[in-house]
Amino acid sequence: MRLVGRVALALAVAVGLIGPATAASAGEGHKRLSVLVFSKTAAFRHDSIPAGVAAIRQLGARNHFRVDATEDAAAFTDANLARYDAVVWLSTTGDVLDDAQQAAFERYIRAGGGYAGIHAASDTEYDWAWYGGLVGAYFRDHPGSVNPQFQVATVHVFGRDTAATRPLPRHWEREEEWYNFRTNPRHTVRVLAEVDERTYDARGYSEPGGSPGMGRHHPISWCQPYDGGRAFYTAMGHKAEYFSDPLLLAHILGGIRMAAGDARFPCGRED
């Protein structure tokens, strides 16, 4: 690439016109990524879904990868899934796939496909144990009856060796609907970020007086190799306005790139 082109590319990255995925592959003939965003709901529906879809489409446009979006479970066939490097489950809820569609998605992951789950993706498919393993942990509850549903808290970010963590501050102050999970996945996944329960009231609504939260180590974003594929999950992203937060978008972009195989995936099991 000529010097003028390299300078222009650097300036475009600096002002956010394009992202690091494009910068890494510009002029090198890399395969263009394709991502499917799936946002079907069969239980609670987040009104932030349209904003999330629009934000991921914009990330794709700025980073030169293709984004398709659907709420049609019929998209889960072998032939159609093979078109995509990663499938993003965006605030899905409830039982969204039938048995044949589940089997097709399992084959897709086993063939090396990528999964990126956002927010309520963990509040999905409770009777499909394979999916529970893929997402890493199922949603349990969040604050909302004895304490505020949305609270500002401190997120501790671990490591700078992944595309999902590199853009983030080590200690990240942000508002969110902070999820508690039914199990703590930290011994089967690589935790990328934890929310510090000392900085907010973590009691959930599912028990009288509020369930106790998850304790000192409360994962909120993680990644793992799973059954032949790659999985990334973040519990952040409840409100539509959060999808205008550059840091959250950088985190999601990095996670999608990791799941799609477009960025390093150092996500082995933690000791």
Automatic annotation (TrEMBL):
Residues 35-257 form the ThuA-like domain. Keywords: Signal. Residues 1-23 form the signal peptide. Gene3D superfamilies: 3.40.50.880. Pfam families: ThuA (PF06283). This is ThuA-like domain-containing protein.
